């Protein structure tokens, strides 16, 4: 509890990690606020069903608070969001001159602050994917401020967990995205960095994952612990193995 986990990908798609954490925390009985900025609800629900979780049922029992970013953006641009709910949209910054993410932070805080009758084990904020906020016009400083305040509330005050995905690309010249990703690396307790194979596409090895367990953020002189595995994504799970030791090679 109280941990900040950063998911990064370079040269491949690390979305399978988001689906893992979503199903993992729901099965564990945690209250989850999911800022799904990249895909629709039905997409996440179909994958979750393969992993043995129903997002619809989790929403109905109040365990999952789901922000469908694609739909919210359209509703906001066409002026339908406030008419339906009577409340300002969490993505209010889209229609304002400043890229202030306070409305999004308020949505997270309200969603995860426990009620008197709540019996969930702990709050979890899951974001897929933070790069979308930059694409929508938020500044890197605003995005980093948003994550900072979320860490203070969720990790420190509520003793929950924050899991954030930041997409990356080796060939991209998106300096803002690199700035946000590199800055978050310095604040993370755990980094899961998914990379494509340097040798290109392979049917039996889909990429490699670098697991970086950060040393204490206090100055204790410890070194970060790094483990590297290769993986293959299957229909309902992911197989991990040491580099060069896939079943196809052996």
TrEMBL record:
- CDD domains given in the database record: Elp6
Family as reported in the entry's similarity comment? Belongs to the ELP6 family.
Q: Where in the cell is it found?
A: Cytoplasm; Nucleus
Presence of keyword Nucleus: yes
- Name of the protein this chain belongs to: Elongator complex protein 6
Please give the chief subcellular localization of this protein. cytoplasm
Q: Does the keyword Hydrolase apply?
A: no
GO CC annotation: cytoplasm; elongator holoenzyme complex; nucleus
- Which InterPro entries did the record assign? ELP6, P-loop_NTPase
GO terms of biological process kind: tRNA wobble uridine modification
Biological or metabolic pathway of the protein: tRNA modification; 5-methoxycarbonylmethyl-2-thiouridine-tRNA biosynthesis
Q: Which UniProt keywords apply?
A: Cytoplasm, Nucleus, tRNA processing
